[in-house]
Amino acid sequence: MSEKVLAYLQDNRERLLEKLNEFLSIPSISTDSVHKPDVAAAADFVSNYLTEIGFTTVEVQETKGHPLVYGEWNGAGEDAPTALLYGHYDVQPADPLELWESEPFKPEVREGRLYARGASDDKGQVFMHLAVFEAYMKSEGSMPVNIKVCIEGEEEIGSENLYQVLEDKKEQFAADFAIISDSGMVDTGQPTVLYGLKGFTGLEFTVHGPSSDLHSGIYGGVVRNPAMALSHMLASLKDEQEVVKVDGFYDGVEELSEEERKLIADVPGENYQQTTGVEKTVSEKGFTAKEHMMARPTMEINGMFSGYQGEGTKTIIPSSATAKLTCRLVPGMDPDHIQQLVIDHLHKNLPEGVTMDVKPEPLSAKAYKVNPDHPLIKTAGDSLQKAFGKEAVYARLGGSIPVVESIDSIFHMPVVLLGFGTPEDRLHSPNESFPLESFDKGMETLVYYWDEVKNTSL
Amino acid sequence: MSEKVLAYLQDNRERLLEKLNEFLSIPSISTDSVHKPDVAAAADFVSNYLTEIGFTTVEVQETKGHPLVYGEWNGAGEDAPTALLYGHYDVQPADPLELWESEPFKPEVREGRLYARGASDDKGQVFMHLAVFEAYMKSEGSMPVNIKVCIEGEEEIGSENLYQVLEDKKEQFAADFAIISDSGMVDTGQPTVLYGLKGFTGLEFTVHGPSSDLHSGIYGGVVRNPAMALSHMLASLKDEQEVVKVDGFYDGVEELSEEERKLIADVPGENYQQTTGVEKTVSEKGFTAKEHMMARPTMEINGMFSGYQGEGTKTIIPSSATAKLTCRLVPGMDPDHIQQLVIDHLHKNLPEGVTMDVKPEPLSAKAYKVNPDHPLIKTAGDSLQKAFGKEAVYARLGGSIPVVESIDSIFHMPVVLLGFGTPEDRLHSPNESFPLESFDKGMETLVYYWDEVKNTSL
């Protein structure tokens, strides 16, 4: 079956690339209200494409913000599995414009890469799925599984309305599993299946001392310096071996099995010194950097400030000091509980003579993990290997993709994360691009995947 | 003798206040080049006044910046002591103007206080000295001691050119002791002699991690967070009992004698909770807040910053983190040596995986202290008591006055700090004022002082 579909994709490659360029030419910047008509145009592009392909239900669902495009094709019958494709058609702003070598919304191919805002994140990868659906429908007249499509326009502004829609229309969006291509491979040419994501919680806290900045001569030695108090409190959170010292933080964290340590060891190591510019990497005592990043919880200071920040010296005792913290969580950790443990720790470690107020970050996410041996995951790895000619690696991501956690918690279904981006794609930065090799081999992967998945018993 | 002088001051009070208002009306803001002609006009006011009084040498000495007014009167003869009066005729900017209840350069008396920029700092106090000189010369035809006057126009911009002038013209400015009225009393109505000031040193240091901010998900657990490294380093500098943990920091610090602890205990305690707004004061283990502030070295964080400081959360590992530190020093501590000890401590406590660069603060000052039993100091206390009808207290200041240290180190002569300001004067702030009681009783104090000092054997 797949031969005809693959041939269709090859025969129509130029036309499909042109159609992708049309999609990429729409400046659907969701964060900028000036671009609201462009965001709507991108939604129309998706819905029109779904209609062309032959989706039987196509809806542009209005929300309080930007619309969500829903599509459905049930021609594979009741016995075939149903997959939910999630993606987004909105993009990040393109500025600073002067750093782009070609215009962000005039796609251009240079040295095997397609340059445009959204080429990788996520229009390019959404388009590959749609093109594969087209290839099936035009060459075979049907797709191997039932497909529901959910392409939103607010991913770059925090998916403000998505979760409520999914909750409200749970039945409409329900499926056997979800598939998302909005991520990347661990290295260029290294096919990757993500089987886990970290959860997330955070907070900001401010230590208050004197009611205004004080003269450090006249009041030095009399009042607690809030910046020093903050430093003591922050230092108490994590030791120099990168172990979090908050009571109960690691309770419930599942042990890293030998099998999984092996999987992680097989993921080709990024040269962290080179990519980050640090002289030496550090990681939690007892774990490698890759293990810590993929499979152990972390706590980071994202920002802090107090007192005078200009040139030279200003001899004050600052009236307050603030820090912003986030934690990345692994399965077994509840975001709200961890947030409370950190708050309790800060209260316990608040020095005499200062007070504190805490702003808990309202957004949070649980970690997500699927068994890497799950047939849907194994099939993804096998399909990648067939298309790219290289064994796939199974990796967990140190980051969070909130939509995955939401799909998991609303629908209790596995999420297949098949990302075709590469570390060189410059997401959210000037000169975003996507390799044409990923475009071709990615679509090939999807064809192998659908052909195989239709036989998977779920 | 003093009766005639005091009578002159009383008889001429209105005229003298008008003359002071003329001085205060000149917006001699040294930091703002727009006001350069006003600064020059204030210098002329001082030099003209000295000429009117009968000073035999009066010079407006040009510098690279604003001029310095020098005056000399040697009529008391070779056997009489020679005093050097230091003060400044420049003022701080007056903004924000909208917070002034009357215009900053249109002096106005309200409820016994004279409101104007410079009323207390330092035009008002300089003027009192000049008025007393006038009273002596006009009523007695002579002053009790020989007087040299040094009134500069750059105090509010760090006395940029003063120290070089003093070095270059050491012989011209040499005297038996110096007298300065550019400070205040510990409490309104509580006459105060300052017999010590703290020294000063500082530095800024930056901890560098990755070459740019990193995604806290993708790199969390792999690299050392510079903000956390900074917190550990800062926390290592001082413990929660406010004891500085830098090796050698307290070496050479002189013990606080029981006598001095008694003197300090006699200084009326400011209600620190009320003036600073803290719930609880803290001080170095083993010392009261007043002892710590006046007579023990301190270390303060004046500012720090790292990463994201805006609203909400940005999930980054910051590329760097910076802190600004200053120390206030007591006699026995060398500023350069202490600065180096702190730098050494930071290097020793720099965690793996980050680097550091240090910007030592180029300005520094040694602590200054004169024996509170020195006859020049005792005479100051006695004169204050006679004028204010209340026993004077002998206090050390937690702050630094760099000119005092310079006079001490260039001329090796005692400096008498006779300040008539009050804690309510709002120096450097909107609605600066000076109590007329200080004006009257301060001039009376100076008359008693000069009359007594002429007999002091130095």
UniProtKB/TrEMBL annotation, chains A, B:
Annotated Peptidase M20 dimerisation domain ranges read 195-353
**Domain of life (superkingdom):** Bacteria
**Biological process (GO) annotations?**
proteolysis
Q: Which SUPFAM superfamilies match?
A: Zn-dependent exopeptidases (SSF53187)
Q: Does the keyword RNA-binding apply?
A: no
- Assigned keywords, A-Z: Hydrolase, Metal-binding, Protease
Q: Metal-binding: is it a keyword of this entry?
A: yes
Q: Name one GO molecular function term.
A: metal ion binding
PANTHER family in the record, alphabetically?
A: BETA-ALA-HIS DIPEPTIDASE (PTHR43270), SUCCINYL-DIAMINOPIMELATE DESUCCINYLASE (PTHR43270:SF12)
Q: Which NCBIfam families match?
A: PRK07907.1, PRK08201.1, PRK09104.1
Q: What is this protein called?
A: Acetylornithine deacetylase/Succinyl-diaminopimelate desuccinylase
Q: Which organism is it from?
A: Sediminibacillus halophilus
